[in-house]
Amino acid sequence: MSPLFRRKADPRERLVTLIRKPGCHLCDDAQLVVDKVCGELGVSWEHKDITEDRDLHDKYWEQIPVVLIDGEQHTFWRVNEERLRRALTD
């Protein structure tokens, strides 16, 4: 569909997933950003622990923290607040 006719997604219909592991300071930093942005926009978010999911571990262990938006990778390592906000509202 042409972008001109595409409906702008309501941020409240999105899902952000933070893939992390315990003891990871970058993961803690990412969680603060995700919690802040999602809280302000009313976006649902969840976190998943790579130490509890072999598939996630195999796919993302070199990139954590990883942020997915609606199941698609948005970023890894460092989460930029403004970039995440734009991705959820554009």
UniProtKB/TrEMBL annotation:
It comes from the Bacteria. Transmembrane segments: none annotated. Coiled coil: none annotated. InterPro entries: Glutaredoxin-like, Glutaredoxin-like_YDR286C, Thioredoxin-like_sf. PANTHER family: GLUTAREDOXIN-LIKE PROTEIN C5ORF63 HOMOLOG. This is Thioredoxin family protein. It comes from Streptomyces filipinensis. The lineage of its organism: Bacteria, Bacillati, Actinomycetota, Actinomycetes, Kitasatosporales.
